[in-house]
Amino acid sequence: MIRMIGILSDSHDNLNNLRRAITIFQEAGCRLVVHAGDFVAPFTARELASLNCPLKAVFGNCDGEKIGLEEAIKPFGEIKPAPLIWAENNLRFLLTHLHHEVESLAYSGRYDVIIFGHTHRPEIRRLGQTLLINPGETGGWLTGKSTVVLFNPQSQTADLIFL
Ligand code: MN
Predict the structure, then answer these.
(1) Average pLDDT of the residues of the chain
(2) Is the pLDDT of residue 1 over 70?
(3) What is the mean pLDDT of residues 72-79?
(4) Which of 29, 32, 52, 62 is most buried, judged by most C-beta within 10 A?
């Protein structure tokens, strides 16, 4: 069975939308959820404890309460300063928050999947051998559209889901 990876970013304290995202990830049977930063307050990060899988996350530019976020996430995952780099299923992942350097990182050829956020606008495109994924904003405050991504590591395809 293919186990999907759930991807979200910029939840910006929108607890209701975050709960919708969690439901989508649970129903998809995600084995990992990735958050590209800008939780803002630790209380929303604690909500992700109800996922049935680990969380990997990076701090966004609006994540000031770093110790609180670390403590909220520690029981079920990790949050680090960007970038967070790991490999699994023969795929090399890079997770960051800001969008400015993702194209250069893609051209380096070192990563199969680069996940980022910050712009609040969804973006899924291939650049050379690298798949760039911005899941848009979970919060929905800026664009009025709340989106997440389900990534299939076997087919290396990413689907945008509207909450
Ligand atoms: Mn940001």
Answers:
(1) 96
(2) no
(3) 97
(4) 32
Q: How far apart, in whole angstroms, are the C-alpha atoms of residue 36 and residue 97? A: 5
DSSP result, 122-149? -EEEEETTEEEEE---SS-TTTS--EEE
Taking the centre of ligand 1 as the mean of its atom positions, its distance from the CA of residue 12, in whole angstroms, is 9
**Å from CA of 120 to ligand 1 middle:** 8
SS (H, E, C) 61-80: CCCCCHHHHHHHHCCCEEEE
Q: How many CA atoms lie within 13 A of 25 on its CB side?
A: 29
Neighbours of ion ligand 1 (CB under 5 A): 38, 60-61, 118
Q: How confident is the model at residue 47 (pLDDT cuts 50, 70, 90)?
A: very high
Q: What CATH number labels 5-162? A: 3.60.21.10
pLDDT, position 89: 85
Token pair belonging to 113 = 């999947």
- Return the amino acid letter for 10: D
Cα 2 to averaged position of ligand 1 atoms, centre (Å): 31
